[in-house]
Write a structure and sequence with these properties.
heterodimer; A: about 150 residues; mainly beta; OB fold (Dihydrolipoamide Acetyltransferase, E2P); 2 domains; four-stranded antiparallel sheet; B: about 450 residues; alpha+beta; Rossmann fold; Dna Ligase, domain 1; D-amino Acid Aminotransferase, Chain A, domain 1; 3 domains; eight-stranded antiparallel sheet; five-stranded parallel sheet; 15 helices; 20 strands
Chain lengths: ~150, ~450
């Protein structure tokens, strides 16, 4: 154990992907399954190596799980920031949009963050409400991608 | 409260049980709340119950609960007049406290200068020593550069000594030295590590206490010169520097001793112009108190002090932030009875690995002297992104024995399904004869766990 401890990078927040891969390699080499890193101030990082010894180690980090997107035919265009939503003229059902088109602005005082469409297609639903305080990640419009 | 309120709406820059705790205090004082949350916390109870709820970012704390600019913008767009940081996250970030006040808002906590002073171990210790707070014998400042001078300091303090990084904390950047032969190498190595880890090679040296207890004193100060101490808590049961179970008062330490330390703590608060709630942490061994650090925020274990003093610490933080005068006098604060807090974590009982998932059954205990602070409800999903604290059971009794007995029944009543918890660990600890006797040291739990571990 002590050999692994001496080689594991100093724990300061979530390790970089390079460090994660390095720690995973060290675990496999040492024949260990799990490791807990802590900074003594409450931050902790757990890793478990799940792959069999012959395969490439697959490190899972408790703090970095990614939610799975549910596939659907239309695409939700979400608010990239919070603020008061100001919809643009494009934000109407039936409008043809192209990548980069701006369907709304998230406004906080003078700050404006545009809501841009990522694909070419047709707006099939306008979910966001003009003039309403809107949170990060809220759906603004839905776009049916062009075939 | 008076009509002269500085703020009517409080943004709670936190999550989990403490966000709910702060929200309750706000509502009881007639204040509105703004819950800011990450996408992962959209279904949280305090979010549902807030006057205004705003998702400010993704699950990653760096882009939500730790995003200073985002939090200030959220306060602006929601019309909040104050920000309560809770514990953890930005609660002890001096730059954030300054930025909040610079934006014309009220920071519910001490000034950035107070936070900064206590964040550096050498300046904190010096300030405490100047104010008459007992500190561990040591170098009284940075170690000199010459090996001979360091040796002289260590010999005067007496071995074993511990060499620590000024910028370190919480168990990192420190090394125990048992004899004068090891000293020079140990200092060189620790300085190198400190430079690498904290960008600051400054070291200091202290007498190493071998079997100390962790005893801490809660203080509460207003901006009109009143500073109160609210008794002591014993937080010696720790694993990896994380507190597991706390109790108030500290068993076996005479109230007169605590009163003397408490008076020195509030004297220090007056000298540095401290405001709000704070905690002085001490190591205690053989009747000697030694200051370790001051926490400039509300703590997880604050409820046990609330139970033994009858003072709502979070409500008082808000009142102090409004500029009100504390309407309690020291002589009116009676430390009565005994309180215990068990921290409930969503974690594997054997490995301590976090156990996120959906809680399918959540039956809470009750009865006289039982309080549960938790954000968890039935079907709540414990997120993997944050710490694993899912709640706290607090028991209160006229005596320590009664508090223990009530806690044991409460833990037996508690039913949690869908995730693993450390309830069984608490039950075993409460049944442990040494714990029941009281006064175990800070290494006790780790030793106890090592003895239980299957080899």
């Amino acid at each position: 154990m002590s050999t692994v401890e001496n080689q594991v990078p100093v724990f300061e927040g979530i390790p970089s992907s390079e460090d994660l891969a390095r720690i995973a390699d060290l675990l496999v080499q040492a024949g260990l399954e799990t490791i807990e890193l802590s900074d003594g101030k409450g931050a902790r990082c757990f890793m478990r190596v799940t792959a069999p010894a012959s395969a490439v180690p697959d490190a899972q980090v408790a703090t970095a799980a990614v939610p799975v997107e549910v596939p659907s035919s239309d695409i939700a265009v979400k608010a990239p920031y919070f603020g008061v939503l100001a919809l643009t003229d494009l934000a109407q059902i039936g409008t043809l949009v192209r990548p980069g088109d701006v369907v709304g602005q998230m406004q906080i005082g003078a700050l404006q963050v545009p809501v841009t469409v990522p694909v070419e297609g047709t707006i099939v639903d306008v979910v966001g409400q003009d003039g309403v305080l809107t949170g990060y990640g809220a759906v603004v419009v839905r776009v049916e991608p062009a075939a | 409260m008076s009509d002269m309120q500085r703020f009517k709406r409080v943004l709670i820059a936190n999550r989990g049980e403490i966000a709910l705790r702060i929200q309750r205090a706000c509502r009881q004082l007639g204040l509105e709340t703004v819950a800011v949350y990450s996408e992962a916390d959209a279904d949280s109870r305090h979010v549902r119950e807030a006057n205004v709820a705003l998702c400010i970012g993704p699950a990653a704390a760096s882009k939500s609960y730790l995003d200073m600019e985002g939090l200030l913008l959220a306060a602006k767009v929601t019309g909040a007049g104050a920000i309560h940081p809770g514990y953890g996250f930005l609660s002890e970030n001096a730059g954030f406290a300054d930025a909040v006040e610079a934006a014309g808002l009220t920071f519910v906590g001490p000034t950035g200068d107070s936070i900064r002073m206590m964040g550096d171990k050498i300046t904190a210790k010096r300030a405490m020593r100047d104010a008459g707070v007992p500190c561990v014998p040591g170098s009284d400042g940075p170690l000199p550069s010459s090996a001979a001078e360091v040796r002289a300091v260590a010999l005067e303090v007496g071995f074993p000594v511990i060499v620590k990084a000024s910028g370190g904390g919480g168990g990192r950047g420190m090394r125990v030295v048992h004899s004068v032969d090891e000293l020079e190498d140990a200092v060189a190595l620790t300085a190198k590590e400190a430079q690498q880890a904290f960008g600051n090679p400054t070291l200091y040296l202290e007498k190493y206490m071998q079997k100390p207890r962790h005893v801490e004193v809660q203080v509460l100060c207003d901006t009109h010169g009143t500073a109160l101490w609210l008794g002591a808590r014993d937080c010696s049961l720790q694993r990896r520097h994380q507190k597991v179970l706390e109790e108030a008062p500290a068993p076996g330490i005479p109230p007169e001793t605590i009163a003397e330390i408490g008076e020195r703590c509030v004297q220090a608060c007056r000298q540095i112009g401290y405001r709000g709630a704070g905690t002085f942490e001490f190591l205690y061994e053989d009747g000697i108190f030694a200051f370790i650090e001051m926490n400039t925020r509300v703590q997880v274990e604050h409820p046990i002090t609330e139970e033994t003093t009858g003072i709502d610490i979070v409500a008082q933080q808000l009142r102090v932030a409004q500029g009100e005068t504390l309407d309690v006098r020291q002589e009116d604060i009676l430390m009565q009875g005994h309180a215990i807090e068990c921290r409930l974590n969503a974690e594997d009982a054997a490995t301590f690995m976090p156990s996120p998932g959906t809680v399918t059954r959540w039956d809470l205990p009750g009865g006289p002297g039982i309080r549960v602070d938790t954000h968890v409800v039935n079907n709540y999903t414990v997120q993997p992104y944050y710490d694993s604290l899912i709640g706290k059971i607090i028991s209160y009794g006229a005596t320590r024995e009664q508090a223990i007995a009530r806690m044991r029944v409460a833990l037996a009543e508690m039913r949690v399904e869908g995730i693993s918890t450390n309830i069984a660990l608490h039950q075993d600890l409460l049944a442990d004869p040494q714990f029941q006797e009281g006064g175990v040291d800070i290494h006790y739990l780790e030793r106890w766990l090592a003895e239980r571990a299957p080899s």
